């Protein structure tokens, strides 16, 4: 049966029209539901992005940031010079409840809490104090970092 013969027979033509209409109607309902789903998804997605941005703005840039392992935006890893005045921050060595556990290394201080003490070209400077420190540290042999 050719296509032209198909359209000559009225009952097949009406059947074809009915099927086409039902498909269009079903497609219309599906598209409405899909559009509603997409709209609801976009609302929740935008809300989560906005709330995430608000929490990012609320995190303090000053002081000790445990998530980024920084103090006043200075990474707590790298080459360190000990000074007597005008340090980047003051450090007190403690045995319990430190802010950060420090491991001294001879090269490649790339991880949080790994410090290499140097005299030239430091990443940051510290001053050891007995009271009113900015950061409390504990020297360890393994597993350095903020706990």
Characterize the structure shown.
By secondary structure, this protein is an alpha/beta fold. The chain folds into two domains: 3-58; 64-139, no CATH class. It is 37% helix and 24% strand. It has two helices and nine strands; from the N terminus they run ααβββββββββ. It has helices at residues 3-8, 10-58; strands spanning 64-65, 70-71, 74-75, 78-82, 89-93, 100-104, 114-117, 124-128, 135-139. The strands form two sheets. It has a six-stranded parallel beta barrel with strand order 4-7-6-9-5-8. Strands 1-2-3 form a three-stranded antiparallel sheet, with no helix packed on it. A hairpin with a 2-residue loop joins strand 2 (70-71) and strand 3 (74-75). The longest helix is centred in the first third of the chain and has 49 residues, at 10-58. The chain is rod-shaped and about 95 Å long. It starts with a helix and ends in an 8-residue tail after the last strand.
């Amino acid at each position: 049966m050719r296509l032209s013969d198909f359209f000559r027979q009225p009952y097949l033509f009406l059947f074809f029209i009915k099927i086409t209409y039902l498909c269009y109607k079903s497609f219309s309902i599906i598209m409405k539901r899909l559009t509603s789903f997409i709209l609801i998804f976009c609302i929740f997605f935008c809300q989560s992005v906005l709330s995430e941005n608000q929490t990012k703005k609320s995190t303090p840039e000053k002081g000790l940031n445990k998530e980024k392992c920084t103090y006043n935006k200075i990474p707590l890893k790298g080459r360190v010079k000990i000074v007597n005045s005008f340090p980047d921050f003051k450090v007190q060595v403690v045995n319990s409840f430190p802010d950060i556990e420090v491991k001294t290394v001879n090269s490649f201080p790339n991880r949080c809490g790994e410090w290499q003490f140097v005299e030239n070209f430091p990443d940051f400077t510290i001053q050891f104090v007995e009271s009113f420190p900015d950061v409390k540290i504990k020297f360890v042999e393994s597993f350095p970092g903020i706990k």
